[in-house]
Amino acid sequence: MLSAATAALMAMPALADNDITTPVKKAQVTSTDGNVYIESGGSIAIKAAGPVVTLNSNNVVQFNGGSSISNYDTASAYGVLIDNTAGDIISPNGTGFQSVGTLDLSGKGTGKYGVAVYGGHTFLGSITMLDGSVLNVVGDDSTAVYLSRFTTI
């Protein structure tokens, strides 16, 4: 039996795919931007505390070869935040987050998270770093991959 939160999430209308093929300087959020595909030559670069990409809906985040996201010289930076605070997330075909690209949180700053799953609910999807992926996290009190207490994958 589905919980009320899961049923509500599944009832949300589908959004168009967001194919990023050129450099972008705006953080992406799947609940408003839909599936986020960063294609070869595409990138997302921000300089602000918080996530570069947030997966917070029943969508997919995928970095293809030759793509990158970055948040240089920033304390409390996140690369990809899987945020299920609002309820369970069920990714299409179990895809979730997949990377063959580069995720770079280097430079100054502390308390950084490369890939974080947070929110206390269930994330039903994969977190896959394929051959050729780069995950670069530099800074005191920083973590490459983080799973919050009471959150289920």
Please characterize this protein's 3D structure.
The strands form four sheets. The protein has a five-stranded parallel β-sheet, with no helix packed on it. A five-stranded parallel β-sheet has the order 2-5-8-12-16, with no helix packed on it. The chain has two helices and 17 strands. The longest helix is centred in the first third of the chain and has 7 residues, at 4-10. Helices cover 7% and strands 40% of the residues. The protein is globular. It has 153 residues and is mainly beta.
Give unreliable regions as ranges.
Answer: 4-11
Give the ordered list of helices and strands: HEEEHEEEEEEEEEEEEEE
Give the neighbour order of strands across the main sheet.
1-4-7-11-15
User: Separation of termini?
Assistant: 18 Å
Helix count from the secondary structure assignment: 2
Q: Which strand-content bin applies to the residues? A: 35-45%
- What's the β-strand tally? 17
Average pLDDT taken over every residue: 90
Query: Which structural class do the helices and strands define?
Result: mainly beta
Query: Sheet with the most strands?
Result: 5 strands, parallel
Roughly what percent helix?
under 10%
Shape: globular
Radius of gyration: 15 Å
Show the helix and strand layout.
Elements: H1 4-10, E1 18-20, E2 23-24, E3 28-29, H2 30-33, E4 36-38, E5 43-45, E6 50-55, E7 61-63, E8 68-70, E9 77-83, E10 89-90, E11 97-99, E12 102-105, E13 113-118, E14 123-124, E15 127-129, E16 134-137, E17 143-147
Parallel strand pairs: 1-4, 2-5, 3-6, 4-7, 5-8, 6-9, 7-11, 8-12, 9-13, 10-14, 11-15, 12-16, 13-17
